[in-house]
Amino acid sequence: MKTLCDFKRSDIESQIDHIIKIVSKPKFICKKCARVAKDKKYLCKAEALIGEK
Ligand SMILES: [Zn+2]
Question: Which pTM was predicted?
Answer without folding.
Answer: 0.82
